[in-house]
Amino acid sequence: MKTEAFQQCIIPYCGKKYSIKEVRTACDCGELLDVKYEGYFPKSLQEIFRERRRHRGNIFNESGVWRYREFINFVSMDTENYNDYCQKLASIDGAEGRTKPFHLTKVAEYVGVRTENFLLQFEGDTPTGSFKDNGMATAITHAKMVGAKKVVCASTGNTSSSASAFTANELDMEALILVGEGKIAKDKLAQTLAYGAKVVQIKGDFDDAMTMVKELGKERDTYIVNSLNPFRLEGQKTIMYRVLDYLNWKVPEWIVLPGGNLGNTSAFGKAFMELYNLGWIKKRPRIAVVNAAGASTLYELYNEKELRWNNGNPDNDIVDEYYLELDRKGLKARTRASAIEILKPVNLTKALRTLEFTDGVVTRVPDEDILDSMAMISRNGFGCDPASAATVAGVKRLVEEGEIEKDETVVGILTGHMLKDFKSVVDYHFDPKNRFANTPLTVENNLEAILKIL
Ligand code: F0G
After folding, report:
1. CA atoms of 116 and 105, how far apart (whole Å)
2. Left if phi > 0, otherwise alpha if psi is -120 to 50, otherwise beta: which for 112?
3. Of all protein residues, whose CA lies closest to atom 15 belonging to ligand 1?
4. pLDDT at 406
5. Which among 191, 264, 340 is the best mutation to test ligand 1's pocket, defined by most ligand atoms within 8 Å of the CB?
6. 287 phi and psi, to 5 degrees?
7. Which residues pair with 288 in a beta bridge?
8. Fewer beta carbons within 10 Å, N or C terminal of the chain?
């Protein structure tokens, strides 16, 4: 099965189209771009997707990204011809996106939703330990398609790890990474270095690094893999395909996720818009985006300044004024959830579109709640990073506020692995003042003392 694809400005009254082979991260009018498809997507594909889970050694069926290749077919592959797609697609041995939603009883109890209605999908369970591998599979596929050799990104650590692993896995690509010095967990920095990327630390934070990357993108021969690249977001749509696939295409009431650069928020919304327009789903889930309190631009713009998508006419003056004020006051993002320590999310406009389409909500949670939630998730035997735990802290808050009802089905996305930010885990558990701290006990080196404490 083949599909035609093109790029198009997200703003309806502009709607300018570009070839799929153009490398750009914005329309001439300055707004973001979507990847669009013309093709035939019969509902019988659901059966094919399910059948591919029994992959029989085909890594592109094993891959939770490429299993849904008909929906992300911008390379115009013949989806039934292994030799064709095998040559065109980027993958780390089919290991990206092998996730599915599951029940966590103790966390359900903690947030106050019925266990049978509460699911989490652990996107840290991927080759480089974060959801970014979903998007990097498609971004690097597009980079291959256009013959790019030098991949560049700004990062709080996960994009960089993923970009450097995927480029290392290609024969003729290299990665250049810009990070804020001291602004990325050492674990993620180490990972990025180990995969062989060239890392430049700037004296600034993620927002500063992102500004620089946009400038670098204007240079010839650099290919940006941050989430303003529309091809990145195509891969991240598959996170939602897996949720639906494993729920037999029954749409949950809520999808809850952390918000940083708002790539996932945008990608998830696009996935649902496309499925809705195709008639695959009749209901829209409500998307809840959770900001860390110290990096809550979306929360403030959406809830306090009432910024809306407004049929593709968002009031950009509100945003400009807000950013000017941040700059005037010299305000910087500040949270222990360093992965989402972002004040100027590049996908803001797309996220507004998602919120409108899904009647979404935005909440924010303090670091204390994030870290308690992280500890609670681990008590269920799963280890995520602080940004992921914002999801659970957000569900708890929305339940307490009566926004999410106890009987509604809630699917939360955990975006990164515990080992991505080990210091946060150690700091939490070695401080007995923390609510769920599991501090080690120290005793004399004799059996009596050990037995006494047991
Ligand atoms: N969770 C984790 C673990 C992340 O690494 C990120 C973003 C987010 C959530 C936020 O996702 O941007 O789609 O809203 N990390 C980026 C990075 C910024 O550079 O690794 P988003």
Report:
1. 8
2. left
3. 339
4. 87
5. 340
6. -100, 130
7. 256, 361
8. C
Do residues 82 and 60 make contact, with C-beta atoms less than 8 angstroms apart? yes
Nearest ligand 1 atom to the CA of 156 is 19
Q: What is the pLDDT of residue 149?
A: 95
In this predicted model, what pLDDT tens digit does every residue of 197-234 receive, in sequence order? 999 999 999 999 999 999 988 877 899 999 999 999 99
Taking the alpha carbons at both ends of the chain, their separation in whole angstroms is 63
Residue closest to 248 by CA, chosen among 62, 66, 47: 47
Q: What does the alpha-carbon distance between residue 138 and residue 9 come to, in Å, rounded to a whole number?
A: 19
pLDDT in tens, 356-408: 999 999 999 999 999 999 999 999 999 999 999 999 999 999 999 999 998 99
**How far, in Å, from the CA of 133 to the mean position of ligand 1?**
11
Average pLDDT of span 26-47: 96
Question: What pLDDT is recorded for position 219?
Answer: 76
How many helices and strands, by DSSP H and E, does the chain display? 17, 13
Distance between CA atoms of residues 450 and 371, nearest Å: 30
Measure the CA dihedral 209/231/362/301, to 10°: 50
Identify the residue whose C-alpha is closest to ligand 1 atom 13: 263
Q: In angstroms, rounded to a whole number, what is the distance separating the alpha carbons of residues 76 and 87?
A: 12
Report how far residue 397's alpha carbon sits from residue 97's, in angstroms, rounded to the nearest whole number.
28
Residue 167, classed as helix, strand or coil, is helix
Would you state the pLDDT for residue 3? 84
Cβ atoms of residues 282 and 248 within 8 Å: no
Tokens of 384: 């995520």
* Contact status, residue 9 vs residue 27, Cβ threshold 8 Å: yes
387 closest CA partner among 404, 376, 373: 373
Sheet strand arrangement including 174-180: 198-202, 174-180, 150-155, 222-224
Contact of 318 with 307, CB cutoff 8 Å = yes
Query: What is the number of the ligand 1 atom nearest to the C-alpha of 262?
Result: 14
Beta strand pairing status for 17-18 and 4-9?
antiparallel
99-151 pLDDT per residue, tens: 999 999 999 999 999 999 999 999 999 999 999 999 999 999 999 999 999 99
